[in-house]
Amino acid sequence: MVVDKDNEFLDFAPLLDQDSVLEDSNEDEKLPLPQLLAKIIAQRGSFLDISEDKLKEEIENEQLSKDAASNQGDVEMEAEPSFTQEQLRSYEDFKKVKQEIVNSVHSALNESSLSLDFVSLLISCVRPAAGSSSMSPHLKQHIKIGSLSSDKVDPPEDTEKLQLDTSKVGRGWKLESLERAATNLKSSSLRLKEEVAKEKNFWSGMVEVLKSNEVITSMNIKNSKEVCVKYGYGDAGSTYYDKGIGILKKDTTTGNLFFENSAPAKEEKQDKIVNVRIYEKNGENVNLIGESNVEQRLHTFKEKEGVINEIAKARFFLFEEELFYQLLREAATLISLQVSAEEDKIVIDLHDEIIEITQVVPEEVHAPADLPSNERADLIQIYLRLMLYAEHKRNLDQRKIPPLALDTEAQSAPQTSLLSLIRPIIVYNRHERTLKSVRDVLESIILNHFENDRTKTKEHLAEHLKINKHCNESSARSKDPFARISTPPASILELATTSLIVRVKLTSLFASAYSVMNLTLQNQAGSTVLDVTLNDVRELEDCLNWAIRNHDSI
């Protein structure tokens, strides 16, 4: 009889299942009491919920389930087909098969132990502690720990293919390097081209500055050497504290040359320009009759651009700043001459009119209205600037004078620089006013002589009155207007009457602006009958009236 080997263990399955149930029940009985209690609590819960009625009910249910299972087993046994005796194996065959299974298990266990020893011996070469912990005692006794090692061995590759791949990689690296080098060279050339363009713009601007006769110098500013330009008036004789030195810098974007003021200031300095206004006094009312035109002076800077224009603009506003500074200094010493000074305004009271000198921000400059004395205001502002130029020239001339020897006993006292910008205006204005008053006195005398006949008076004055202004100037000084303006004015009025020749010499004092009048009377024979010095026009009038009335008895 041929038996199917695949189903040779199926006949013993019920026996194995029964044995397993028995073994489970036996194991529960062998467990100690604490473990058994823990197992019961894990399966059935706490003993607090267990009662006698529940246990009885559970036992009855379990008995009923066993009865039902036995009945079902009987039914299955009845339904199963009956086997012949030949199909059942004997107990000896079962033992034989069991022995074969046990041998196979032992063989597998030995092979796994050998594999574990092999792996442990390999590990012991790198990590002795970890390898020896899993090694068998027999292996430890006969083989030294760490005596077996391993290494990775790559399989041999195809030489031609390897060379081909290597050459491809090399060519790729070369191409990549060439492309990177080409890109770097191209970017470097573009950068150099931009730098060359920037340098060209910078040096073109520098050449333009040199061609405009500007003074280029170098100066250490904040521990760095900078290219600077002198736009001040220090070399022209100015003694102003701001020497006017600016920095010429290069724009980092375009390379263009631009100008930057280097004067250290605590607060930002605002550009201002000197403006002159003339007011007329009518009692207590003051009316504007003239204003200088400074818009035209600023218009030249608005039309031009570039570093040359920036330097010229800085020079212009530096001169305006120095001019007003010197005017303020002088005005502080002329309070006795009806001059008042404020922070940005100087007021000169000239008896019948007021001259106001102010500083104006360029943004507030506008074209003046059409006033009768605009031209005179323009002339006054031109005069102030010319006088500052003359002061610079005088300081420059003094620098050219060689110093005295050190062994000279008599050394002259150092001369202090006293600017005279406002004082000549006051002195000459008062001189002209006094001259007009003296002429009015002479006219009133002739008018009284002709018994208020104005026609004869005008004809006589036109024929016999001679006025010689600035008679005390030499021919050499009269050619120099700056020297003439610094000389005290003197004028001579000579009038011939029927019996006397009246000669008045009017000399103004430059320090006090007062006038001294020297009156001289001569008869027809040419001899001097009276020579007196007077200080007031009223005294002159009284003296003349007395002299004409009593000229026969003098």
Task: Provide a quick synopsis of the model.
The chain has helices spanning 13-30, 33-44, 52-79, 91-126, 128-133, 137-142, 159-211, 295-303, 307-331, 374-400, 423-449, 454-464, 475-478, 481-485, 537-549, and strands spanning 215-221, 224-230, 245-250, 257-261, 273-282, 285-291, 339-341, 345-349, 353-360, 465-469, 490-496, 500-508, 515-523, 528-534. With 554 residues, it is α+β, with helices and mostly antiparallel strands.
Task: Summarize the biggest pleated sheet.
Answer: 5 strands, antiparallel
Note poorly predicted spans: 1-23, 413-417
Whole-number mean pLDDT = 81
Output the strand order for the largest sheet: 6-5-9-8-7
Distance between the termini: 198 Å
Q: Looking at the structure, what is the overall shape? A: elongated
What is Rg? 65 Å
Number of helices: 15
> Strand share of the residues?
15-25%
